[in-house]
């Protein structure tokens, strides 16, 4: 719940409070950037060049990555007057959980390498605990999922599955995620083969960075059982074994098998076509994740936000998570008005972590939420339920 009193707003998301006064921001770190462009600019110099180009880059000439961001300019919230509310409620319901805010941290496979201590997955989990903003933890982490989940506090986490072709390893990952307390399994469909990424091809980044993010494999008893020597004794063979099972080109026929792995809610990530969304709903999945992977996979496609309403309409009430191109609080509000149940933050939180560790990441999340909250206040939309298609127009 957030309240506005006498020129001061006091949003309270979970265990933190942020005071925003006219002319100054309390609770947000003054040394950290207040705009996305400054955040990106400063992160470029905070990260080692190879990691920077991996995170910042996308597929092809990065057209889709760019339009993911600029497409938000076409949409705008319609201001409503004489219904100002000093109390706002940004909470949402998702898979039976009440979350204090409508955002989550999208899975970012190299997040582990984005913090100075090299344990960015754990840092992200700590930021989740502090803000109530769930982390969707990638399969590709520096620390094993059990160690990451131990830092979630009371904030629920979700596990993103890159489905190994070896079904026993896949089952083991999902069982470990369940045992570690993750609340949903997010199956990424759009990355069974990495896209054409010129920045990484010219730096040989891909294998180098990925080799550092295989803790879930190297700690997995089933994966280890496939190796003649342990990953500690023979890392090269372990990495090659990972590569050999990474590219699982799942089909609709695999959904029953995926369903059989767990009782947790299953969410399919990378769905943009309404027909796919409808079919996934009919197949019994619990949520759709509309995303084009931040333009890192297929280049030349339209902006992810331009797919959102069609996907939402197609699944008629099933939760729809969205990401790709969210850069500020108004993007969050627009995505919610276009029907997203929850909105994923990608590159911005990686940059916050790179610049200021856990505090820097928390600053980014707080700033995004504060901006969204203020926009809802000014424009007269006090709750997430008020953000419906009637609230937004394409200009
Ligand atoms: C460096 C990086 C690594 C990523 N790794 C994963 C991953 O491991 N699994 C996954 O499903 N998506 C991954 N993504 C995609 C994000 O989950 C999300 O879809 C994307 O970042 C959204 O676009 P945006 O960052 O431009 O907002 C990654 C994105 C980035 C930037
Ligand atoms: C290609 C994957 C291994 C990692 C990923 O999802 C990404 O870099 O976008």
From TrEMBL:
Q: Which residues bind FMN?
A: 107-109, 138, 160, 188, 269, 291, 323-327, 346-347
Q: Which UniProt keywords apply?
A: Flavoprotein, FMN, Monooxygenase, Oxidoreductase
Asked if the keyword Repeat belongs to this entry, the reply reads no
* Record-annotated FMN hydroxy acid dehydrogenase domain positions: 28-395
Q: Which domain of life is it from?
A: Bacteria
Cofactors:
FMN
Indicate the residues that form the catalytic site.
293
Task: Please give the Gene Ontology molecular function terms for this protein.
Answer: FMN binding; monooxygenase activity
InterPro entries documented for this protein: Aldolase_TIM (IPR013785), Alpha-hydoxy_acid_DH_FMN (IPR012133), FMN-dep_DH (IPR000262), FMN_HAD (IPR037396), FMN_hydac_DH_AS (IPR008259), LMO_FMN (IPR037350)
* Residues engaged in binding glyoxylate: 54, 162, 197, 293, 296
Q: What family classification does the UniProt entry report for this protein? A: Belongs to the FMN-dependent alpha-hydroxy acid dehydrogenase family.
What name does the UniProt record give this protein? Lactate 2-monooxygenase
Name its species: Antrihabitans stalactiti
